[in-house]
Amino acid sequence: MQKKATRTAKKRAVNHIVAWVVGIVVCVLVLTGFMGYRYLDSALGAVDANDKKALTVSIPSGASTSQIAQTLEKKGVIKSALVFNYYVKFHNYTNFQAGDYTLSKAETLKNIIAQLRGGGSSDSTGTVLVKEGVTIDTIGDSIEKLKAKDPNFTKANFIKLMQDQSFFDELYQKYPKLLKSAKAASGVRYRLEGYLFPATYSVTSGESLKALVTQMVAKTDSVMSSYYTSIQKQGFTVQEVLTLASLAEREGVSSNDRREIAGVFLNRIDAGMPLQSDISVMYALNTHKTHLTNKDTSVDSPYNLYVHTGYGPGPFNSPSETSIRAILSPSDRSKGYLYFVANLKTGEILYATTLYQQEVNTQTFAADNGTN
Question: Which of 1, 219, 244, 292 has its CB surrounded by the most CB atoms within 10 Å?
Answer without folding.
Answer: 244
